[in-house]
Write a structure and sequence with these properties.
α2 (about 15-30) packs across α4 and α3 crosses α4. The radius of gyration is 23 Å and the shape is elongated. The protein has helices spanning about 5-10, 15-30, 45-50, 55-65, 95-100, 120-125, 175-180, 200-205, and strands at about 40, 70-75, 80, 85-90, 105-120, 135-145, 145-155, 185-195, 210-220, 225-235, 240. A six-stranded antiparallel sheet has the order 5-6-7-10-9-8. The protein has a three-stranded antiparallel sheet with strand order 1-3-2, covered by helices on one side. β9 (about 210-220) and β10 (about 225-235) form a beta hairpin. Mean pLDDT is about 85; it is low at about 10-15 and about 250-253. By secondary structure, the protein is of the alpha+beta class. The protein contains eight helices and eleven strands. The protein folds into two domains: about 5-80, Arc Repressor Mutant, subunit A (Orthogonal Bundle); about 85-240, Chorismate lyase (3-Layer(aba) Sandwich), CATH 3.40.1410. The longest helix has 17 residues, at about 15-30.
Length: about 250
């Protein structure tokens, strides 16, 4: 469609809908792959000239696309197609390796440490143990196409998974092993927005000033705590969410 045709089409619709026409045009270019992640999107000035619309209309289209996570607006620089954020469910215990591979991407796990340690007050309370009692601890970073998307800091009740430390987590990550060998019948999820520590920022290859999503999970089997884990995700690279029916059952799709 020529610029003149687009201007004619823009004038043919009600003013209230003209921002939506511009918005749909940009969204369509992103959806069909014409504009790829990182590509520059036309500026407000360019959209005004291209569609014959008011600057306020162009601003609204770009603003709503940014709010929906379709584009990223950088003050003084411009607007760019956003990198798609993978989404993980909150209402299931997900195996991140499977999630990444199902998206057709490469997965790898870097094991930073795994050991038997004395339970701190916090981990002992979470696992219903005595402070100082022996627990298993693992610290991993999960990568999607060589980009770190999750730092996993996990404590495990040795009674519930006695062979946990003997596993090769570079082949089968901790969650995959536990899902296969321990029956969970209860879980608790809490999500917080946090800033990473300098060490965490280094491990996730991100600025320490950039926010993260922190998912804290506890699981139980027949009333006995199994694991207490903190999964830290760089905010711009990941999102968490679920869809479920009114009766509480999860919609998978």
């Amino acid at each position: 469609m020529s610029a003149g045709s687009r201007r004619s089409a823009a004038h043919a619709v009600a003013p209230a809908a003209r921002y939506r026409q511009v918005k749909d045009f940009i969204a369509g270019k992103i959806a069909d792959g014409t504009w790829k992640p990182g590509d520059r999107v036309p500026s407000e000035h360019e959209l005004v000239a291209e569609f014959g619309i008011a600057r306020m209309t162009a601003n609204r289209a770009l603003r709503e696309l940014a709010e929906q996570g379709r584009i990223v607006r950088v003050t003084g620089v411009g607007s760019f197609v956003a990198t798609e954020k993978p989404q993980s469910t909150l209402l299931q215990i997900a195996n991140i390796a499977d999630e990444i591979r199902q998206r057709g991407h490469d997965y790898r796990c870097e094991v930073l440490s795994k050991a038997r340690v004395a339970a701190s007050m916090e981990s002992a309370s979470a696992l219903d143990l005595r402070t100082g009692e022996s627990v298993y601890h693992s610290l991993c970073v999960h990568y999607e196409d060589n980009v770190p998307i999750q730092r996993e800091d996990r404590y495990v009740n040795p009674r519930m998974a006695p062979n946990f430390l003997q596993q090769d987590f570079t082949r089968h990550p901790p969650a995959e092993y536990l899902l296969r060998h321990v029956h969970f019948d209860q879980m608790e999820h809490v999500v917080d927005a946090v800033l990473p520590t300098p060490e965490e920022a280094t491990q996730l290859q991100m600025p320490a000033s950039q926010p993260c999503l922190l998912l804290t999970r506890r699981t139980w089997s027949h009333g006995t705590p199994v694991t207490f884990v903190r999964c830290l995700h760089p905010g711009p690279r990941y999102r968490l969410g679920s869809r479920f029916r009114a009766d509480g059952s999860i919609l998978v799709g």
